[in-house]
Amino acid sequence: MSNHGKKYLSIKEKLAQADVNTWSKAIDFVVKNAPAKFDESVDLDIILGIDAAKGEQTVRGSALLPHGTGKKVRVVVFAKDDYADEAKKAGADIVGLEDLIAKVESGWMDFEVAVATPDVMGIVGKVAKILGPRGLLPNKKVGTVTFDVASIVSDLKKGRVSFRNDKTGIVHVPFGKVSFGVEKLLVNLRALMQVVRTSKPPTSKGKFIKKVTISSTMGAGVVINSEEIA
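Above: the chain sequence. Below: its structure as C-alpha cells.
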C-alpha cells in the first residue's frame, strides 16, 4: 500500500501523461504541480556511476547559481587581522577565531556555511569533529578554505551551493525555489549541471551521470535527459 498522499499520487498520474522531454518542460511541470502552500525548493538528484566506498571517487564541488537559491545563507568566517576585516566588509555574519571556536565548542551552530583562511586551519581543527559530521568544516575543494575571503563570502551570499555524493553515490542539491519560474530555474540548473559534469574522478570508469531527477520539496520526481546540451 502506498504511503503517499492523494496530491502526490495525482501528480504522478499527470506526470505519466505529460510531455517532459526537455529540461524546460520538466521544470515547468515541477513548478506548476508543486503541491505545498509554501514556496517549495526545487532540488536536483543525480545518480552517479562511481564507487562511493572509494574515497578517491568522492564527487564534491561548488557552483555559483546565477539566480541564487532563494534562501538566506548565514556565513561564519574563521580568520584574523586583515582577512577578518575583509570578511566583515564582504557581508559575513560572524567573523572570529578563538572566540568563534569557543562558541562552536559550546554548542552554537546557527549558520549554514563556514569559511576559513588556510593559515588558521590548524586552529579550526579543534572543532573538526563537531563541524565535519554536519558538513560544515571549511574545505579547499569547495572553495571555503581560501585567502580570498571577500570573494567566497560574496559568492555564498549570492547563491553558491556545495555538493557531495552520499554513501550510495547520489548527489542531492537545491537549485532554487518554485517562485523563481522556469527561466531562472533553467539557468541555475544549467550552471549546476555544468560543474557536476566536470567533477568526474579520474578513477571512475564508464558512464558518470547515470540518472538525473528534479523535484519540488513535496512534489514527484521528474527524470530529465542528462545529455541535453546545457
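The CA atoms of residues 30 and 215 lie 6 Å apart.
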